[in-house]
Amino acid sequence: MPQEQYAHRSTMQTSEGPQVYKVGIYGWRKRCLYFFVLLLMILILVNLAMTIWILKVMNFTIDGMGNLRITEKGLKLEGDSEFLKPLYAKEIRSRPGNALYFQSARNVTVNILNEKTKVLTRLVTGPQAVEAHSQKFEVKTLSGKLLFSADDNEVVVGAERLRVLGAEGTVFPKSIETPNVRADPFKELRLESPTRALVMEAPKGIEINAEAGSLKATCRTELRLESKDGEITLNSAKIKLPNLPQGSSSSAGSRQKIYELCVCPNGRLFLSLAGASSTCQINTSVCL
């Protein structure tokens, strides 16, 4: 630069004074910055308000949230609770004096597992039936008395009285062993075998009592009373055999109404008009 021009420029700067350069954000950039800071503050306030609202609605406290409370004995749920996945707990119980309900849209299944996670016992309650899968099923009273037991070998009913309320009675496809069979008061007891035989056996005897009514035995072919070592006693004020066949009269023209009960060698009974002596031998043709 020529010396004259440099001297002229220095003279001009000295006469005008020192220039000031602005440092920072100003103009439209400053306004945008203030706008973003204000927007951020608004978002922070909205977020804080939403957090407080959620804490209020979900009932967050120091002891827990909602219906869930953390106590010294474990977790405490108040009101209805819904579990979307399996629940693992050592003990589940209700508050004293309140019932415990398990509700499901389908089945409620309770499994007992061993150390190898193999199912040992399973209880399934569904809309169609209640199923229990185990080696043995028992029902006991509060005192520990056995009421019902079932396993692969036998079914035991330990109650003092077994009542069957079915209108069609009780069907036993095979034998039944019991010391006593009786009906309810003022009800009749009926033992029936529609298509087969009815057999009653006892090593020391069979006793049939109808204290307030009659006793009726009906069969289609044969009714047999058999005693191998003892006797058969019919002890009654009246013994009626109305449909026995009658033998021919031992004397013509006799009008007597006294009959003699005769027994054939095959066990058949028949009536014969009584005479001075036995007339059973005269009417042996009835036994043929």
TrEMBL record:
The keyword Disulfide bond applies. This is Delta-sarcoglycan. Keywords: Cell membrane, Cytoplasm, Cytoskeleton, Disulfide bond, Glycoprotein, Membrane, Signal-anchor, Transmembrane, Transmembrane helix. It is a single-pass type II membrane protein. It comes from the Eukaryota. InterPro entries: Sarcoglycan, Sarcoglycan_gamma/delta/zeta. The chain crosses the membrane at residues 32-55. GO terms for cellular component: cytoskeleton; sarcoglycan complex; sarcolemma. Its main location: membrane. It is found in: Cell membrane, Sarcolemma; Cytoplasm, Cytoskeleton. Belongs to the sarcoglycan beta/delta/gamma/zeta family. The keyword Glycoprotein applies. Pfam families: Sarcoglycan_1. The lineage of its organism: Eukaryota, Metazoa, Chordata, Craniata, Vertebrata. GO terms for biological process: cardiac muscle tissue development; heart contraction.
